[in-house]
Structure formats: structure tokens, C-alpha cells
Amino acid sequence: MDIDVINPLDLPASAVARWSALQEQAPAYDSPFLSPHWARAVARAQAPELERQGAGTRVRVAVMSNGEGPQGFMSARVGAITAIPAGAPMCDYQGLVTAPDAEVDPRRLVQALGVARYDFTHMLSEQSAFSPHLRGAVDSWIIDARDGYEAWATQRKAAGVGIIKDLDKKGRKAERDLGAPEFTAFSRSRTDFDQLIAWKRGQLNATGQTDIFASSWVNRLVRDLFNSRDPDFGGVLFTLHYGGELAAAHFHLHGRHTIHGWLIAHNPAFEKHSPGLLLFQHILRWMDETPYSRLDLGAGDYRFKRELANTAQSVAHGFVGVPSPVTFLRQAAYGVRHAAERLPLGKVSEMPGKAMRRLDILRALR
Predict the structure, then answer these.
(1) Helix or strand (DSSP H, E) at 8
(2) Are 221 and 41 in contact (CB under 8 A)?
(3) Where are the domains of the chain?
(4) Which residue, among 9, 361, 305, has the nearest Cα to 295 in the 3D structure?
(5) What do you get for the CA distance between the two ends of the chain, in Å?
């Protein structure tokens, strides 16, 4: 398998079409984060920062080919020594998009990128090529709504999940207290979009998390995606108003068949009515009349995700490296992390892992 590394903005139309066709072959690939359009959007958003950094930092796509043409694609942000997934930490799925019988050596991929190590945080666990390099995994929660809202709701009720009944009850109470809801899909309201970002920043600051919107490339990326008009890829703003006031807003990514939950926030004044969850319910009902059949909630051990989802797929963190000082350093860091996690010390055991995640986020936001 030959590997060529090119700028995603230079991908010929035939390569974009091939990449998109490969995505159609497997449900796990049906994510906007694994599409050629994501790589291109990130490349455009990050260009000013990466140009200032110099030292060869850039967004690139590894194209794996044989005599029959391209057989696989993977995007990455490539630095002088290491590489990370394109768009991290905003990228909820990472990995290869390949033909079913394609065989890829991850170390050859790292060498082709011109680095000593490739770090990942949300790699599709089912990708056998990377199996030896996974260091831990979590579930990413998905609502498969291909048979429609009512079929999904009936299935969740039959599974003993009470969230549908709770949402119906909350929805009726909100309507009694606040009036009829006003749901908007693919909203173009700049005011509502800006309010969502303000609420999200407030959430991050209140919980002591890194303010991702302090990064100029993240702001450019989400605003470019909000302005997108591509029917196969882009950002989509969903809003829920009561009495003319914005109660909740979601900014999600969409591909051809999947809506991926991304940025979610609500008006604190409507807290008791759970407007963010009610907005999910409106989205699922709306999907009945659209080409979208999956609502991907992403990773995270949250009750609402576990109860809304009727399927899941595993995503993993880890790294692939060739013998080098930076590879040995990463291996040592994971050694400390795993040793701490095996100790019965509660939150203290989680500290090395949290520190690694925080450093990875800061590194990616530069």
C-alpha cells in the first residue's frame, strides 16, 4: 500500500468522491468528523495559526492507495515531531476510512506523516490496525432512528427506560407554564448562535474546564460551519423558544445521514423544564421527515446519553510511535497513568489521566 500525504484543500474531486463512497460502506464511518469536508474545514480554520507557528505544522491527509486507486484516508494535524487528529479537541471521532479489505500498517502511516508519534483520543476501537496501540476506551452513544421517532420511543420504553415518559411530562408542563414551544431546525439566527456560544463558555468556565473558544481557530471553525450551505456537511443550529425567548440551543454537525451532537446549552432561567433535553426530543421527531437516521450523542458517561441511546460504539485513546524519545516519553506517561488508575485512591487515581487530557487539549488549541 502506497501512502501519499497531501493538503486536504488540494484533494482532487475524484478523491473526495472516493472518500465519501467509502464512508457509505460502514455505519461506523457515517460521521461528519470522518469526512473529507471536516479535514478541509479544519485546514481553512487553522491556516492562520499554523502559518504563524511555522516549523512545518500543517493539516494533511494520508491517502493510502494500491494499483486500483485510493483505498483509505486519514486526516491529521502534523507538527515537527508529533501528529494529532485534524480538528482535535473538537473532533469526536478519529481514524481511518478504508475499503473493507485494506491493510494498513499504522507505523508506516506515522512515518509517511513525517513524525515520530501520532496521538489520538477518540479512535474507532473496531479498527483492527490500531488495536495494539489502544490504551483505553469508552462508549460513544448513538440513537438509531432509522424506523422513526415512534419506533425508537417504543423500543426505549420496552427496555425499561423512563426518559421518554419524563420528557413527555416535562414538555406538557413547559407548555402549561410558558406557552407553546417554537422549534426551529437549521436556524440562521446569528443572535441565537452567539447566545449559545456565550452560554457554552459560561458552562466551561463554571466547571473549571478549558475554554475552547479562547482559541481563534475554534471560533473560525464553528462560525464557518454555521455559515455552511453544503447539503452533505456542515453545522446546523437547532433552537427552542418559549414566549419568544430562547430556552435552549444546539449546534450540531451533519453529514449525509447523521446528526452529531456537538455544542449544547440552555437558558438558566428555564432550568427546571430541562429545555436542552426537550430540544433533543424535537430534533428526533423532526428527523422523521429528513434523510437523517442517526443522532450521535458522542462519548461521555451521562445518564441522558445512556437512556436516549439504543446503540453505542467504542472510541479509544492511545498512540502509535516509532522508536524515539517522544515515543518513550508518551509510553512512560501512560505507564504512570495506568499505575495510578489501578490504585484504590478515588479521585487521586484519576489525576494523571486528567493531566494528560488537559495537556493534550491545550496543545491542540494552539
Answers:
(1) none
(2) yes
(3) 2-141+314-365, 147-292
(4) 305
(5) 33
CATH topology of domain 147-292: Aminopeptidase (3.40.630)
For the chain, the C-alpha Rg in angstroms (whole number) is 21
| Positions of E strands within 10-68 | 58-66
Residue of 337, 299, 294 whose CA lies nearest to 315: 299
The answer to whether residues 308 and 297 touch, using CB atoms and an 8 Å cutoff, is yes
pLDDT tens-place values along the chain, 366 residues long: 899 999 999 999 999 999 999 999 988 899 999 999 999 999 999 988 767 666 556 999 999 999 889 999 999 999 999 999 999 999 999 999 999 989 999 999 999 999 999 999 999 998 888 999 999 999 999 999 999 999 999 999 999 999 999 999 999 999 999 999 999 999 999 999 999 999 999 999 999 999 999 999 999 999 999 999 899 999 999 999 999 999 999 999 999 999 999 999 999 999 999 999 999 999 999 999 999 999 999 999 999 999 999 999 999 999 999 999 999 999 999 999 999 999 988 888 899 999 999 999 999 998
237 backbone dihedrals φ, ψ, rounded to 5°: -100, 125
Asked if domains 2-141+314-365 and 147-292 share a fold, the reply is yes
pTM beyond cutoff 0.90: yes
Contact 236, 287 (CB under 8 A): no
Q: Maximum distance among all alpha carbons in the chain?
A: 65
The answer to whether the beta carbons of residues 69 and 98 sit under 8 Å apart is: no
What three-state secondary structure class fits 212? helix
Residue 47: partners with Cβ closer than 8 Å, 6 or more residues away: none
| Topology of the domain comprising 2-141+314-365 | Aminopeptidase (3.40.630)
β-pairing, 258-266 vs 294-299, is: parallel
Please give the Cα distance from 213 to 134 (Å, whole number).
Answer: 29
* Cα 266 to Cα 274: distance, rounded to the nearest angstrom: 8
Q: Which amino acid is at 54?
A: G
Asked whether 299 and 89 are in contact (CB, 8 A), the reply is no
